[in-house]
Amino acid sequence: MVFMRQHLIDPEVCIRCNTCEENCPIEGAIEHNDDNYVVNAALCEYCMNCIAPCPTGAINNWRNVRQPYSLEQQYLWDELPASIEWADTEGTTEALEEEANQILDVAHQGSGVVPAPATAARPQINLWSQGSPAKAIVAGNYRITEAGTESDVRHIILDFGSQSFPVLEGQSLGVIPPGVDDNGKPHAVRLYSISSPRDGERPNYNNLSLTVKRIAYGEHDETKKGLASNYMCDLQKGDEVEITGPFGSTFLMPNDAAAHIVMLCTGTGVAPFRAMTERRRRMGIVGSGKTMLFFGARSASELPYFGPLQKLSGELLDQELVYSRVGAGTKEYVQDRMLKRASDLAELLEDEDSHFFVCGLKGMETGVENSFKQICLEHNMDWDKIRTTLLAEGRYHIETY
Ligand code: A2P
Q1: C-alpha dist (Å) from residue 314 to 264, 365, 398
Q2: Which atom of ligand 1 is closest in space to residue 364's alpha carbon?
Q3: Of ligand 1's atoms, which has the minimum distance to the CA of residue 367?
Q4: Is the pLDDT of residue 97 over 60?
Q5: How do 134-143 and 61-65 pair as beta strands?
Q6: What stretches of 227-286 show up as alpha helix (H) in DSSP?
Q7: Pick from 383, 385, 362: which is nearest to 373 by CA?
């Protein structure tokens, strides 16, 4: 082979959140220094595990090269080198291009590179960076789980004033906690899904909302989890917060009013689904698209937005609230409830207007997949085939943490 398709990270777009390195199963295939995150061409096996989780898309860059760029070269980049024109290389252009595409096809098989829904609006991304963040003002911070329960979940409203921060349902943003870490470096950006629709938390205001759960310090000592969530949950009205983003260009709401949207979540994973549901509520029921929510929490009093959810009509939102800690022997997860709605889900799985979104705890991913598999088995359907089609058509999106 006279060339290779090299996987590279765009240093201009990358927010250095470490997600790619965390998701890479091969030790050393992705590494970083204080400047850049880089891919080791000798180790990368094109498994693509890093592609979908990247919040900015910086990870999804490729160059056709005869000699791979070294780590040293990549560390020095402020921007990616321009693509080499095929006409500049030796050999026949078409043969080279075909071979490169074949390599990429193989690399993408089962890769989790999922396009956005066909009718999603075009998102804006990376308008604000860590070096040049937007400064939002806290317009409100409300607890949305019952006082006294263990789950302190907040609905936080941020106002962007005259700064441009356009978002779509499903997108996220980055929060820069103030101060520095033990090494004197700024804290890593923490990502949060936006829980308000595109026209603002308050319609036609330049604001948005986040759904943040307080995580106790010390629960995750090594990763310093809890630092950002405590900062966020303690914010007072009028405080200023540094924000990066917006991020996300695939986990997006279909605009088509005929699209069926099936949302599966636990805890604060509800954030993007609150945005999608609110979008549909504000638009009114204008199409044939169903909106269905499977939402798992410890109990009703610890389920974020329990009150507002009760007020939505069944026609607007078909909701299944599932509780795991309401009494001995009654533990139920989202994936268990899916089986109780098996025939409805089977029908939706066969409908090409259906879109499925999963957001929440990592552990639910396998559970949800197993339930889809079981539902398909019971209904004489081939889950593997359906899954492949859904992914290829941007109709199955998973965001777990
Ligand atoms: P559990 O009671 O077993 O912790 P949290 O309140 O921690 O944010 O969790 C949200 C909900 O997700 C809880 O009801 C929790 O149940 C549930 N949960 C935990 N693990 C899984 C899993 N693997 N699949 C689905 N739900 C889960």
Answers
A1: 17, 26, 25
A2: 24
A3: 24
A4: no
A5: unpaired
A6: 227-233, 271-283
A7: 383
What six digits make up the tokens of 393? Answer: 């058509």
The full set of domains in the chain, from first to last, is 4-112 (3.30.70.20), 134-247 (2.40.30.10), 260-400 (3.40.50.80)
CA-323 nearest atom, ligand 1: 14
Ligand 1 atom having least distance to the Cα of 213: 8
Question: Rounded mean pLDDT of the chain?
Answer: 89
Q: Which tops the pLDDT comparison, 259 or 65?
A: 259
| Parallel, antiparallel or unpaired: strands 260-266 and 240-247 | unpaired
Distance 302 CA to ligand 1 centre (A): 11
Q: Pocket of ligand 1, candidates 266, 301, 338, 370: which has the most ligand atoms within 8 Å of its Cβ, to mutate?
A: 266
Each residue of 270-300: pLDDT tens digit?
999 999 999 999 999 889 999 999 999 999 9
- Report whether 3 contacts 71 (CB < 8 A): no
CB-defined site of ligand 1, < 6 Å:
151, 266-267, 296-298, 324-325, 333-334, 361, 363-364, 367
Q: How far is the CA of 241 from the centre of ligand 1 (A)?
A: 30
